[in-house]
Design goal:
alpha+beta, six-stranded mixed beta sheet, 21 strands
Length: 365
């Protein structure tokens, strides 16, 4: 069982929502579509579901062309961020409705409904109607109904966005177990890199209607193909600074020079963009090998347990993640430091050529 998109694109009112895309998803896999709002995640899911037809290309299900097949004739279930339930039915009957259409026996329906209700913490409200339960419970009801169908393809469009933090965290760990047990192809859309990593499986990063990379989640995170993918798969987005490589050293705009280790010394001389993630930026502590920079604080964001600092450095705006609650004044001068071992290097075409996880020779440089 597989879902294959072959050169699929979608254009609406002269605007390209999905550029020609090739993607193949296999049975029993979790596949996360990761990208910011309006990157094309929902548009791509609607093509997979058959809700929209592609303007170019074809869609194959288990080798058969289903491009023109109606959504109701496909083996799919879909869960939206904005939940949809039957208002006149109880939670029990909402979950049971697709099973009745499938003509399951009463005992099978009862067992499946109770299983889904327990998993999604709906047992206590199973006899109530949607307008008698909370918004979070209504969303869980919609999820339970979709998961109960035991279909080949389950599409989930940011299904946890409207849930409270505690339940969202619980379900993030439960969903991978669900897909493993079902053997279905799961496609899950999210804007959050952390959620993509927690769900595991494969990740497709999207930007402006294009899939920039697809592969095992940790591989895409640790080894992004290009600068765009690195931005998408970092929260906050990856920081960058322009540098010049000359011999065994890298020169920064402020005149500082750092020596490269043996692995990176083989990089061709020239101009690069060095990228690093927010948690790699630290307050100056004179660590051996670290580079110190003068920075000006622009704003702080308190998250409760950590603090994000936005700083201006060498005509760049960087974001750092500091542990604990930090108190700084806007405009305050700060000394920050970076370990060059954490840098990702991108060439003039914004392609990754070296990183903490990839040596230059692996990139053909």
């Amino acid at each position: 069982m597989s879902l294959r998109l072959q050169s699929v694109s979608k254009i609406s009112n002269g605007e390209t929502h999905i550029y020609p895309t090739n993607l193949e998803l296999q049975k029993g896999t979790m596949n996360v579509l990761l990208g910011p709002t309006s990157s094309g995640k929902t548009s791509l899911m609607r093509l997979m579901a058959g809700l929209d037809r592609p303007d170019t290309g074809k869609i194959f299900w288990d080798g058969a062309d289903v491009t023109k097949k109606r959504v109701q004739d496909r083996d799919i279930a879909m869960v939206y961020q904005q939940f949809v339930n039957y208002p006149s039915m109880t939670v029990y009957d909402n979950i049971a409705s697709p099973l009745k259409i499938q003509k399951k026996s009463s005992s099978e329906i009862d067992a499946k409904v109770k299983e889904m209700a327990e998993l999604l913490q709906l047992t206590s409200v199973i006899d109530r109607k949607p307008n008698e339960i909370s918004g979070g419970q209504q969303q869980r009801c919609a999820m339970a109904r979709a998961l109960a169908k035991d279909v080949g393809l389950v599409l989930m469009d940011e299904p946890l966005a409207n849930l409270d933090y505690k339940l969202r965290e619980e379900l993030r760990f439960e969903i991978p177990r669900l897909f493993e047990a079902s053997g279905s192809i799961f496609v899950y859309a999210t804007t959050e890199p952390e959620e993509a990593l927690l769900l595991g499986g494969n990740t497709a990063t999207l930007w402006n209607g294009q899939v920039t990379q697809y592969g095992p989640a940790m591989d895409v995170y640790r080894d992004p193909l290009d600068e765009t993918t690195a931005r998408v798969y970092s929260d906050p987005p990856m920081n960058f600074v322009s540098v010049r490589k000359d011999g065994a050293g890298v020169h920064f705009p402020d005149g500082q020079l750092t020596r490269l280790n043996e692995d990176l010394a083989s990089l061709s001389d020239g101009e690069y963009r060095a990228g690093f993630r927010a948690h790699h930026l630290e307050m100056s502590d004179n660590q051996s090998g670290s580079i110190e920079f003068e920075a000006e604080l622009v704003v702080t964001e308190l998250t409760g347990s950590d603090t994000y600092i936005h700083v201006d450095v060498m005509d760049e705006r960087w974001i750092g993640l500091m542990p604990g609650l930090q108190t700084f004044e806007v405009g305050q001068a700060l000394k920050i430091c970076l370990d060059p071992q954490n840098f990702f290097y991108f060439d003039k075409d914004r392609k990754l050529v070296a990183s903490p996880n990839r040596k230059p020779e692996e990139s053909g440089i």
